[in-house]
Amino acid sequence: MDVVVVGAGASGIGAAIRLLQAGITDFAVLEKSPALGGTWRDNTYPGCACDVPSALYSYSFAPNPSWSRAFAGQAEIQTYLAETARRYGVLLHLRCGVEMRRADWDPVRQLWSVETTDGSIEARVLITATGPWHEPLIPAIPGTFDGPVFHSSRWDHSVDLTGKRVAVIGTGASAVQFVPAIQPIVASLQLFQRTAQWVLPKPAHSVPAAERWLFRRLPSAQRLLRRLEYLGMEALGLGFRHPWIMRAVQQIGLLHLRRSVPSASLREALRPSYTLGCKRILMSNTYYPALAQSNVSVHSTAVASFDGRTVVGADGTRVEADVVVLGTGFKILDLPVATRVHDEGGRSLADHWQGSPQAYLGTAVAGFPNFFNLLGPNLGTGHTSAFMILESQLDHVVGAVSALLSRGWSSLDVRPSAQASFVASVQTALRGTVYETGGCASYYHDANGRNSFSWPWSTHHLRTRVGHFDPAAYTISAPLKVAR
To answer: What DSSP assignment string belongs to 327-366?
Structure first.
């Protein structure tokens, strides 16, 4: 077929819709799980919600006037994705329960040979849409815990936490949401934090019925709201490039901490030592108050080991627990799909990258013709919606695929010089950002210590640069002529 898309989360659904809008219908979307949805299918932990405003966290071509909250919850986003996929005809191309095991580029036939759990597929173009928030990061903790242990993205709903002693490891974006949700029902909650996080107040509220009625009757009103939210996020984005702005904004976080936590010693334990924005910015109105409750203890240490029903901290702390919940994040830069996509010589993306993912405009990789990776390296921002990034990439990808199919090209392979120039410019531009100067260690940095996650410029620049397909950046091959 013309195209194979791997993954049916927001990226894969968006890719399918844009292909259909471009008149490309000979494609399949492979999804290893029984249903679409990606991270919003997998993350069902209590309190799961988005930290980007709902009007902005959606496809620009498929606004949802019925969002019930300013920051939508998991179930509502999952419903939105499923309904959008149905409305735009994606389900006809969706193959659930089919996992890509391996993909190899055939230079003779100029095709991708894709091995799946349901047989083999040949495709002219391969698009991976597996996303960075998919594979949970499970820490290798020595010892054995004598009780349930599960990651927040694989929440075990069969375990009733009521009246239980619960240990939570990690204080990232998921923990900030599920800790306040479970705190009222557990007997005790022992929170292990290696690093205190910046937590800002969240302007979360229900969307009034009158506002939803207005959005349904006057779609331009919701487009205006989306635009205003975008501009507000862009204003915050200035701080990532000019850290002195973040040092001013973080005073809001300190005020939020003082107002929410009466105990001076607990406030000191929760006060971050790095500049706001160096790590992912978190928002919650309930996290700090939950930690101030009498059944919660905060331990400023990593976990060293398990010993039966005891969780042992690196500082020697020992706490008894019935259940352990891991809020330890995801394999953001160590993408499992990178071991499954291979060039003509059999080398995988992971072999090429050697721990430091890189791609031209975060999208195409030299040596991997007719291959595009959505939400790829150095496209992450700390302040806007992933949908904004995704749609810019899709302009580029669908432009490239349309040109390939309509102009009779057999392959497009980004020039190594174009990729190297882009990667070098990104690393240069990152030097003065808060990501590099904020004084923290974050998942933005890969195994080699290089920032392979962050985009150092404005989202406007991302949309104009990434969204433009320039054939001059690619080596273009014409169809091979076969002797008759």
So the answer is: ---B-SSS-GGGGTEE-TTS-BHHHHHTT----BTTTB-T
Find the mean pLDDT for residues 254-261.
Answer: 98
* Calpha distance 444→451 (Å, rounded): 5
At 135-187, the pLDDT tens digits run: 899 999 999 999 999 999 999 999 999 999 999 999 999 999 999 999 999 99
Determine the Cα–Cα distance for residues 352 and 57; give it in Å rounded to an integer. Answer: 33
Long-range contacts of 376-381 (CB under 8 A, 24+ apart): 377/333, 377/452, 377/453, 378/423, 378/426, 378/451, 378/452, 378/453, 378/454, 378/455, 379/455, 379/462, 379/466, 380/132, 380/444, 380/453, 380/454, 380/455, 381/237, 381/240, 381/454, 381/455, 381/459, 381/462
Q: Residues 64-117: pLDDT tens digits?
A: 999 999 999 999 999 999 999 999 999 999 999 999 999 999 999 999 999 999
The structure tokens listed for 5 are 């898309």
CA angle 311, 313, 316 (to 5 degrees): 110
In this structure, what token pair is assigned to residue 58?
């959606």
